[in-house]
Amino acid sequence: MDRLAASSSLLVKADASTDTAECNDAAALDSAAHLPATAHISLTTTLQGLLALEAGWRALEKNACTPTSVFQSFDWISAWCRTYCTGDAPQDLHIITGYDRDRLVFVWPLMVQRRMGLRVLCWLTEPFGQYGDVVCAQHECPRLWVANALRFLKRLKGIDMLRLRHVRDDSTLKSVASKELVDAKLNERAPYLDLTAFASEADYENRYTGAQRKRRKKIRKHLEEMGPVTFVRLPLGSESEAAITNALAEKNKWLAERGRINRVLGCPGHLTFLKTLSRSVPQGLDMVVTELRAGDRPVSWEISFRYGSTHFAYITSHVCALTDLSPGRLHFDHSQRDCLAAGIKTFDLMVPYDSHKESWSSGCMPTQDYFLPLTFAGRIAGNIYLRQVRPALRSVYYRLPQSVLRLINPSRGRATEQ
Q: Residue ranges of the alpha helices (H) in 34-106?
């Protein structure tokens, strides 16, 4: 059975003597590690099949309690699929699910995309999902489930490569990926601020140096020339949707001036997706849209998500004409204080690392890209392009001056959300 319908499943060969304690034994995992007779793996390939998983998926999220799987949450995945899996060109979903005694205990959301003539299996919602992880129930062995899921994937026809971007070092998948998959040699860092280091807002204030305090006061003084500065969390609805629209438009203007490429902001339907997500009733993923105003004029925005005890700063944006005033710096200050007051433990500034994020973070979480060739063509593309060519091109790209970037990327002249 090469391709499976949304409601069908494939029972991975069982070994009743296998115990999940084997997950601590790498040699045992390589040589055996079949699922017990009570467990099986299925493949969901349609929007209807995804929606049928809702109750089990949400229960699994609550059980797993892993902030690293924020972009594998049902809220996030279902909003994306409702945006992109309708119409004449639906996405090729490949959501791997694992069951034990008819209870959903494992989810690995993937999709197939065509790239450079190859069919590549990647994270579902890419490039919007900034991190990738599996969702695995507590007391289950992630290595056991991932190993069997990989066996399952190798039996599917017509897929050249599995490619997984931004696997965090603290993710559930990391320990398996580093042993079972090929390192794509594209390492990044996700800056974050540990808010548990501050017992009060006064402690947070003390983290600033004298120069930082002086700069923050200067920013506020210039903004106050337009009116009193206020920071507000917008209610989800018409106000937040207007802010999201403005934030994306201004961010694209800022990128256009610098000739920068941003796959997320350049994706058709991104605005529609975020609006769809904002209209959903949150049951795990809390969407937060904040706005900094000078008088009645919005000057900066943050589109973020709170999942578990972590705040993920997904998109930050400011009025492009006010770039020299740095309103985003003041916005970050307000946003982190708001998180501290709300009991949030971690403020994640997300990939990619950038020097301007240093003053708002206390550490960085490494991320790696991995791949697994499934055909000869996939092996060639992975070992030559992903491991050698792409890292070199990326290194050159980030060293190019803005004048050159504008020449090689004239399409960035479009400064509105696509």
A: 47-52, 54-64, 74-84
